[in-house]
């Protein structure tokens, strides 16, 4: 791999990172807070590519030689660059959610649950609903209409579940939060469809067969299909 | 060194090669093909398993890139601009004393493991004793403030987890440094000869070092990310749950899982927190092993230090991390 080829690969990689972080595509893979660092990294890669080309062209044939132990492993960097530029894989969905246990296993107990914000229905994250439903036993939820947004995945009983992925750092540590859908209104949408569900708290709690975590339920009164949120992860 | 450098320059200059399709042309053809075949390619990876694999693979790479790039820049600064004499003054003269100092120095570098591999390579190149550089390599990703804060957030009910993690990681890092002083052989570390670092122009040497490290460590990072994505998709979590009941088996299972998953050290605490059926001791082992030995680190260490080094260092670190982690866990809980 000569230096010019290395420069091109670095430029591709830097370009791919910049494209991803300027178009919200990066939110499918990492947290929003990483954006400035991605901008910096992408820019540095482009500068490094430019400087490599500059020195190589100035050196002429002398610098055009192959560096033999300069690894062929570098070629592999084309793979992530092209995966971002050409495919831009979607955020984790129902397949990943089905394989992993719900994240509500860990009792991240707040000592006191603040009352719900005003609004009817109240928009809530699945994590917020889940922790209030399980660890506050629904006290702060009772009597309010709630609105949750997530995608559809298939529960262990074959019925649709409302699901959202959470992540701490990147999608490799992504974990689902699953909320069962109870009540008279059945949500009929194919898996991975984003839906907005309005309902009230249900006292029903099941166990996720994957890791025995709690799966709270929501009594659905109304639902509709919606577009994927800008930030697919909670 | 000087002599070899000038010889090779003459060799290259003397051979005037006729034009033949080289790397750049091959790359251009490959790119054209891929862009033309973009749609069939996208259909190919639309199966849910393969799609999840691609997502995880890209995520690991995107997450690691800033840390890799900044680590590489810092290591290029060390390699080119920081004079050798600085390290002689900054670190205790005696290697036995230099090891813990280097380990503690890891506290000030907020970064994940991808960045610390090229930095450690640079330190060795600049004359820092390998034992101290290796202690830094192991300690930096495990005990920096970001990682410890993340651990505290992930384990709100068990504040002793933070102290246990910091203590166990520091002990392993220092112990491995001292072990290297006793048993390590310099010839196991094969840092490739880098004539470009002796360039008369510091700017040219700096960019050459950046280019080399990004391509080299980055290439091995790709291998590690691909392996981690494969494990992530291929091993369903339910398999693990059957192992959680046995105290010994659970420690080993999470230690192996930490190696296979290759999660960034800033995120692994949250994953550990969610593995709630496992004992706190086994989860501590997960947190101690992960930043020190995992697939992407093994791949990168192989790339930067050579195969002979990685084949000895990674298993030894694994054993040390499991023993110390389990020991401290047993004392605390």
From TrEMBL, chain A:
Protein known as: Putative repeat protein (TIGR03943 family)
Entry keyword set: Membrane, Transmembrane, Transmembrane helix
Source species taxonomy: Bacteria, Bacillati, Actinomycetota, Actinomycetes, Micromonosporales
Superkingdom in the source lineage: Bacteria
InterPro entries found in the cross-reference section: DUF1980, DUF1980_C
Listed transmembrane segments: 33-55, 75-97
Domain DUF1980: 140-233
Keyword Flavoprotein: no
Automatic annotation (TrEMBL), chain B:
Cellular localisation: Cell membrane
Record field: transmembrane: 27-50, 56-82, 131-155, 161-181, 214-235, 247-264, 313-332
Pfam assignment, any one: ArsP_1
Stated name of the protein: Permease
The organism's place on the tree of life at top rank: Bacteria
Record bears the keyword Ubl conjugation: no
One GO cellular component, as annotated: plasma membrane
InterPro entries cross-referenced by the UniProt entry: DUF318, UPF0718
Family per record: Belongs to the UPF0718 family.
Organism listed in the record: Actinoplanes xinjiangensis
């Amino acid at each position: 791999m000569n230096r010019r080829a290395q420069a091109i690969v670095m430029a591709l990689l830097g370009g791919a990172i910049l494209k991803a972080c300027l178009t919200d595509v990066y939110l499918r893979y990492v947290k929003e807070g990483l954006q400035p660092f991605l901008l910096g990294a992408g820019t540095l890669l482009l500068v490094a590519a430019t400087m490599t080309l500059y020195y190589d062209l100035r050196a002429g044939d002398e610098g055009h030689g192959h560096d033999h132990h300069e690894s062929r492993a570098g070629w592999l960097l084309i793979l992530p660059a092209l995966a971002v530029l050409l495919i831009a894989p979607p955020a984790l969905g129902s397949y990943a959610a089905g394989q992993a246990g719900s994240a509500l296993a860990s009792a991240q107990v707040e000592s006191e649950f603040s009352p719900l914000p005003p609004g009817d229905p109240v928009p809530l994250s699945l994590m917020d609903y889940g922790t209030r439903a399980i660890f506050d036993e629904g006290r702060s939820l009772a009597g309010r209409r709630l609105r949750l947004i997530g995608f559809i995945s298939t529960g262990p009983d074959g019925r649709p579940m409302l699901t959202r992925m959470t992540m701490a750092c990147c999608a490799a540590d992504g974990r689902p939060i699953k909320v069962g859908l109870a009540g008279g209104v059945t949500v009929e949408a194919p898996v991975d469809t984003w839906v907005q569900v309005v309902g009230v708290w249900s006292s029903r709690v099941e166990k996720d067969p994957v890791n025995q975590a709690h799966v709270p339920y929501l009594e659905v009164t109304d639902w509709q299909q919606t577009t994927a949120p800008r930030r697919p992860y909670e | 060194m000087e002599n070899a450098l000038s010889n090779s320059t003459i060799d290259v200059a003397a051979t005037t090669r006729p034009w033949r399709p080289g790397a750049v042309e091959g790359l251009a053809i490959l790119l054209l093909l891929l862009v033309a075949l973009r749609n069939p390619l996208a259909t190919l990876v639309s199966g849910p398993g393969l799609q999840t694999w691609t997502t995880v693979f890209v995520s690991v790479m995107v997450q690691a890139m800033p840390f890799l790039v900044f680590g590489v820049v810092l290591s290029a600064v060390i390699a080119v601009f920081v004079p050798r004499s600085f390290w002689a003054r900054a670190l205790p003269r005696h290697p036995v004393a230099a090891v813990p100092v280097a380990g503690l120095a890891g506290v000030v570098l907020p970064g994940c493991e991808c960045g610390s591999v090229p930095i450690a390579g640079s330190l060795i190149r600049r004359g820092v004793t390998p034992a101290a550089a290796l202690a830094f390599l192991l300690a930096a990703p495990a005990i920096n403030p970001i990682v410890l804060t993340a651990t505290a957030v992930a384990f709100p009910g068990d504040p002793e987890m933070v102290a246990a993690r910091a203590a166990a990681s520091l002990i392993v890092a220092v112990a491995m440094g001292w072990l290297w002083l006793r048993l390590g052989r310099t010839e196991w570390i094969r840092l490739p000869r880098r004539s470009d670092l002796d360039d008369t122009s510091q700017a040219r040497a700096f960019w050459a070092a950046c280019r080399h490290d990004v391509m080299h460590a980055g290439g091995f990072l790709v291998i590690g990310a691909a392996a981690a994505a494969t494990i992530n998709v291929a091993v369903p979590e339910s398999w693990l749950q059957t192992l959680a009941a046995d105290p010994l088996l659970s420690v080993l299972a999470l230690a192996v899982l930490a190696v296979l998953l290759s999660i960034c050290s800033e995120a692994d605490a949250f994953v550990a927190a969610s593995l709630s059926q496992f004992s706190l001791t086994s989860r501590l082992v997960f947190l101690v092993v992960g930043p020190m030995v995992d697939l992407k680190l093994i791949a990168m260490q192989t790339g930067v230090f050579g195969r002979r080094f990685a084949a000895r260092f990674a298993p030894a670190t694994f054993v040390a991390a499991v023993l110390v982690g389990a020991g401290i866990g047993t004392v605390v809980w």
